[in-house]
Amino acid sequence: MEDSKIIALFFQRSEQALTEVAQKYGSVTKKLAFNILHDQQDAEECVNDAYLGAWNTIPPQNPNPLITYLCRIVRNLAIKKYHSKTAAKRNSLYDVALNELENCFPSSHSVEEAFDAAETARSINAFLKTLDKDNRILFVRRYWHAESIEDLAKLFQISPHAVSVRLSRTREKLKKHLKKEGVSL
Amino acid sequence: MKKEKISHVLENLDIAYIEEATIFPGSEAKTWRTPFLKWLPVAACLALLLSGCIWYILREPSHEDPNDWEIIMQYSDPSAGKDPHQSENSSEGFPSSPYYPGTTDASTVPTSSDITDSPDPPDPIGSTDPTFNTESTNNTESTAPSNPTSSTAPSIDPDDFPAPGISADPVYLDFVTKDPICLADVPSLPAAGGDFHLQQFAFPEILSLKASERKNYPIYANSYPVGQAGALFEITEEYTEMSQENLRTFLTLLFGDGDYSGVYTDYSSHSLIYEDKEISLAARATSLSVTSTAYETYSQLTQEDLNANPLIHAAISYCAIEDPMITQEIEYDVYGNVYNYNYIITEKTADPQQALFDHTFSYVMLHSFVGENIFVLSAVHVEQPEEVGATTLATVEEIEAYLQKSYPHLAEKAHVIELFYSAQVIPGYYVPCYRVFFEEPELTQQYGVPAYSIMDLTDSRFLS
């Protein structure tokens, strides 16, 4: 079913909308949640919560594309659950991805330096703008979607090694960019 | 805490970028303007076989204490892929062959129990890397030039040929010695490429010499070294003329007599490009490479194919190979599936030193890509490379001793040691190097094909 028809079902408050969403985007959203949580049950709960979130926000929201909207909800919920978990969960793909990114961000040298997530994100957005489309998508899929290297290799039809190298180069560029902009965490 | 901040930052990424990534359907087979262009990078890599090299800062040669080994890079494992330089000069130019049968014998592979004070290099065994297998076959039968079909292409202004680059000016290198050879690892840069591949070309007759019988081997000038940025030599009028002559020669062999002056349609770096409906040809001063979709790929190249395929036929004639010997290599991807068949065609010889020379300076290499129906062919023919020095070869015992000292946990896994000429070590020169293959039983079991990791060694004085 097309997204517009699913949205129409949401607007009609038809529960068929949730069935259609689950059928069309269930695997994608579950995969995203699992990437972050590394737990099948938690991932399913997260996805169900996301469907409820979509139900509660559409309308008035009329997201286009719908998949991105759903993924953002899933991710936010998954991250929240991730942070609430103990170190036992810290072996997920998301944790691995964060480990990779950690070295890109210079550490604050003083406690007075305030952390401004929005400002830092603005700097990263500016950096992403300088990347070519493939590398930008690769970066986002890795660090926002927390996708595995192997999955990215299949997605881009390149070898896992090539994915790692490209990500490594992008991180190196990001590190320089953040250093140049004086961004620290 | 820092991770939480990063996570929080990521939540604020531009929605447009998230959408872009989320709806990205995945890469499809790239659509190229012509199928030939897809393989031009491969052809360019093959071109690097001729003369590519990596710049290393040269220090004055000195004779080092054998106990003071210089480790430039401790290990070059297959996961690093192949550096374009390396593949061009040091390995792609060498054919595969059956493994050296003697190296698995306990008497030739030392144990690691007696070395305890050596450095502790990184262990490559844990890497999850692709595998390879080789098989070889030999055929001998001469070939004759193919019948022509005429072809013309628009010419471009020869003045557009690339501007001069860096000139390499070899000087005489004397590394002859009676003392033990100090070895060092050949630096290997990770490449932004995918699956690695290996060649094997063992010359046990040479390397198994005892120290008292050690041989001196020539060092050759590499007149046309190529780096990642392109030609490292000055592109002179002479070079351009040689490239054009090579192009004319090959087209004549392929299509028959005709006027092939100025038929090249473009140039790329240091290559003249000729394209028609069936082939894309890059010609250089001492080599050329061809990509084509017009012919069947080969899972088993036979002597009949050498005659039947006009491209191979012409390439063999171009290299003046009269009694061709075919060596086959099969490459496997990370899943253990065959993805490439390579063939190296050289003049048949029983003299290992001549074979080593031929596999460096006069050979045809064919890459036949499975499922793609495209193959890339390169032909290298340097009639008389200039000898600009000499060096004493290390013995197997010295190589094993080096491994024992520097990589005691790997030494027992050494399976094959092969000799090859590399243009990677010193820009502007071909120098002898040694490639050690280490058994990887876990990967072999995992992928079901023999898996090996590799390490390249050379005389440390080349690197100093």
Pair of chains with the largest interface and how many residues each contributes? A-B, 48 and 35 residues
Largest sheet, strands/sense/barrel of chain B: 9 strands, antiparallel
Q: Kindly report how far apart the N and C termini of chain A lie.
A: 44 Å
Sheet having the most strands of chain A: none
Strand content of chain B: 15-25%
What integer value in Å does the Rg of chain A equal?
Answer: 18 Å
Helix-residue proportion of chain A: over 70%
Task: Walk me through what this model shows.
The complex is a heterodimer of chains A (185) and B (464). Chain A has 185 residues and is mostly helical. Chain A is 72% helix and 0% strand. In chain A, helix 6 (117-130) packs across helix 9 and helix 8 (149-156) packs across helix 9. Chain B has 464 residues and is of the alpha+beta class. Chain B has 14 helices and 18 strands. In chain B, a hairpin with a 3-residue loop joins strand 8 and strand 9 (279-283). In chain B, helix 7 (237-255) crosses helix 9 (310-318). Chain A binds chain B through residues 65, 67-68, 71-72, 75-76, 79, 82-83, 95, 98-99, 101-102, 105, 107, 115, 117-118, 120-122, 124-125, 128, 133-134, 136-137, 140-141, 143-145, 154-162, 165-166, 169, 185, and chain B through 2-15, 17-24, 26-29, 79, 81, 190-195, 334.
